[in-house]
Design brief:
8 helices, 49% helix, five-stranded antiparallel beta sheet, 2 domains, alpha+beta
Length: 139
Amino acid sequence: MENRIKALAKFLELSEEEATEIEVCCEERCELSYGGGEYIVLTDDEANEAARDYIRESLWAFKASWINDYINIDGNLTEFIESMQEKRCESCNEAIYALVKDRFEDLVEDSISADGRGHFIAPYDFEENEEGEYFIYRQ
């Protein structure tokens, strides 16, 4: 965790004294806080996994036409997906995952390529910030 704290301190341009004020909120999720801001500091692999997990849990909120591109069924199911999303919201997530399951990894890769990992990991500003071997996301 010490290297992650150093990376955050460098990113925030903190003095050594200010850096001592960085608090560990959750070591398991690499969550740190400083001056009212909360951050997640991740390696490249951890960031990919965090974005993938977010996408997996939020498929219900993706554009139906985007989801349709990853379904291995001939035809356009956009209207059907939109109807499920409108009526069931979060509770249709598993049904949508079942539709894209065979191409889920492609969907993840394309979503990250289109929007960046920050879009999925950093709800504060949707930004991904790199500091050395770490990626920093404001929460």
